[in-house]
Amino acid sequence: MKTKTNYAQVLPVLFGFFVMGFCDVVGITSAHVKQDLLGSYSPEFRDTLSNMIPVALFSMFLIFSVPTGILMNHIGRKKTVLLSNVLTMIAMVLPLIDYTFSIALIAFAMLGIANTILQVSLNPLLTNVIQGDKLTSSLTAGQFVKATSSFSAPFIAAFAATALGHWQYIFPIYAAITLLSTLWLMATPIKEMPTENKVNTFGSVLGILKDKNIFLFFLGILFVVGVDVGMNTASSKILMERCGLSAIVAGYGPSTYFAFRTLGTFLGAIFLAKYASSTYFKWNIIVAVLALLTLIFSHAEWMIFALFGIIGFTIANIFPIIYGMAIQRRPDKANEISGLMITGVFGGAVIPFFMGLLSDAVGSQTGAVIIILLSALYLLWLAFSENNTTEKQ
């Protein structure tokens, strides 16, 4: 079905995906916090403690995703997005008040709440302004904008460190961008879509997981976010450990990862319009697993950067593919399934936690890469079992 696109409505919604990408600053933040604030701690605990930053952020997805799906049914999608922006701005101010490890944990926990609300509500809000044949490409475009935000974070941190005197001034920059997004969206009239058969209890929402396929997709979201956040968190530390780079220079590790992930989302919008998402899923996850296996044994700086790029490119579209499969299975429950799928972003807390434990246990970042690899192996299994979970309905 061909539909006319109102770009005056679409653009402020897509810009919200840039704010959504702020959660990925957690990777360079954990490396800086480890260097700035954890120097007095025993070396065997530094990785575990610094990885509590992503745990504080992504654990909020477990707690607040389902309530956000319920809240959306009551106040509407646009107001839910605006609420998330207000919480994001508050989170960005906290590290400027007092730069301590405990305040950093609180700030990133609040950013986690804000980002949970945003991720649950922004994709459904996009369906308010885009329908028909352009919806899939628009969702992919949103992921491209998010990836651009993630890619730019190390550069913004480097600018803050060199031009403003400290990397942590990235936070007021992010607050200003969020304010711009808030004002733009507030000034944009967007009609709320009517919601039928509203679900107002946890039990009713969680009951959707009784569908085996939805549950497998939920686990897929958990592990793909685990791979993504795991690479974001570990890449700087791998370069510092194996190549002796400083925290600022090693910050270009996550930047490389996100640059290729950004390229992957851009090209994915083209490829997914021509090829089946299941085929694209299979080939990309095969390459990602092979790259992670190689990363375990790599110590050359150029090879490590190359592998970061390969992994970023191949993992780029797996999240929207799985998310789209889940929504398409039960479009009548889009708000509730969105909440459930975004709950899986909790994988960004679970996977780095085990990465830190195994890294400290083996005394190197090889432990972190092994945990990421195990997550990718589940996605490999899901890719080749996907036909059994979707096409035979």
Give the key terms.
393 residues, mainly alpha, Growth Hormone, Chain: A, 80% helix, MFS_trans_sf
How would you summarize this macromolecular structure in one to three sentences?
The protein is mainly alpha-helical and 393 residues long.
Textual characterization of the structure:
Helices cover 80% and strands 0% of the residues. Helix 2 (26-37) crosses helix 4 (52-75), helix 10 packs antiparallel against helix 14 and helix 15 (318-329) runs antiparallel to helix 16. It is built from 18 helices and no strands. The longest helix has 32 residues, at 212-243. The model has no long low-confidence stretch (mean pLDDT 83). The protein has helices at residues 7-20, 26-37, 43-50, 52-75, 77-97, 101-129, 135-163, 170-186, 202-206, 212-243, 247-250, 252-271, 277-297, 301-315, 318-329, 334-343, 347-362, 366-390. The chain has one domain: Up-down Bundle (Growth Hormone, Chain: A). The protein has 393 residues and is mostly helical.
Mean pLDDT: 83
- What is the CATH class name? Mainly Alpha
Main sheet characteristics: none
Tally of separate helices: 18
Within CATH, the superfamily carries the name MFS general substrate transporter like domains
Radius of gyration: 20 Å
Query: Helices and strands: which structural class?
Result: mainly alpha
What percentage of the residues does DSSP assign to strands (E)?
under 5%
* Global morphology: globular
- Which series of helices and strands comes N to C? HHHHHHHHHHHHHHHHHH
Number of strands: 0
Looking at CATH, which topology would you report?
Answer: Growth Hormone, Chain: A
Straight-line N-to-C gap:
23 Å
Low-confidence stretches: none
Number of domains: 1
Helix content: over 70%
